[in-house]
Design goal:
four-stranded antiparallel beta sheet, three-stranded antiparallel beta sheet, 7 strands, 2 helices, single chain, rod-shaped, Immunoglobulin-like, alpha+beta, 37% helix
Length: 156
């Protein structure tokens, strides 16, 4: 009776192991990235997400690499990228070491109005109102102190 129980238990363990290895899943064959235009020209900040249709395994690790360095993990990224050409690579890995990657060449542009030429005439007006008036007050106070000091010396 004990040998029969041992064989049944061993059969259950082997069946369970086979079922577990069959259902462990793999990295998906493909994935979709939302928020990155095909031409790579995006308006900052980068706001993108990974969509995986066939999610046979919940333990997938998603990493975002910008110019070779890891900048984020998870299904979503929101990050400011300085203007210029950059390489963004998204990698999805499973627990067994399988992986799939997709790369994008990005050419981000600043948000509208950022970096435009300032209104120099208005800025100069503000500068002279603040510092011009302050300069006149300072010069007047300095002259008054100097004259007052000379008056104190002459009467003493």
């Amino acid at each position: 009776m004990r040998l029969g129980s041992f064989i049944i238990a061993l059969t259950l363990i082997i069946s369970f192991t086979v079922m577990m290895s069959d259902s462990s899943g793999e990295v998906p064959d493909t994935f979709e990235v939302l928020g990155i235009p095909l031409d790579g020209k995006l308006i900052n900040p980068l706001n993108a997400s990974v969509v995986i249709d066939d999610r046979s395994e919940d333990n997938l690790m998603i990493s975002w690499h910008l110019d070779g360095g890891k900048v984020a993990e998870g299904e979503h990224i929101q990050r400011y990228i300085y203007p210029g050409t950059h390489n963004l690579t998204i990698t999805i890995e499973d627990e067994e070491g399988g992986s799939i990657s997709r790369s994008f060449l990005l050419d981000p542009v600043p948000p509208p109005g950022w970096g435009e030429e300032p209104d120099n005439e208005r800025n100069m007006t503000i500068f002279w109102i603040i510092f011009g008036a302050g300069g006149l007050v300072f010069a007047g106070v300095a002259a008054w102190i100097w004259i007052k000091k000379d008056d104190d010396r002459g009467t003493g």
